[in-house]
Write a structure and sequence with these properties.
156 residues, five-stranded antiparallel beta sheet, 1 helix, 10 strands, 13% helix
Amino acid sequence: MRMRAWVLGVCGAVMVAAGVAGPAGAAAGPEADLSFHGSAVMNGDQVEVRVSPHNDGPAAVPGASVQLRWSVPLADRQLLPAGCARTDERTLVCDTGALDEDGTGEEIAVAVRLAEAPSEFTLEVDTAWNGGAVDRDRSNDRLKVLVLDTGDAYAF
């Protein structure tokens, strides 16, 4: 229980930082353009998401995080990769690590179980924290993808 409270506290701090240092904030930081590309596959209640973070610059980002939000609840118990934390019943936040200018970060692979086995769900991918950078083009880091229970990879 203490670990969960610590993780939620850290994630809450990340979310607050995102609101303060986001593109609409008054803080002037280096300019960077984060984007996310990847795929999602659903088989019954099992989902695998792969995300590749990218920074088109012009400045490097010392660290960032991506938010993954499902339109349906996740199962209570999850085995998440290092660098990922659950923030509520439908949302995960994962660390991207540092992103060089015009650089692609390490692929983030997340396998989760859904609370039920729906025929489809929507996955929202968004920047949770941008390392204090100003991102003037949020259109490429706020994505939605409809995933059907077909076993096929749906790209975003």
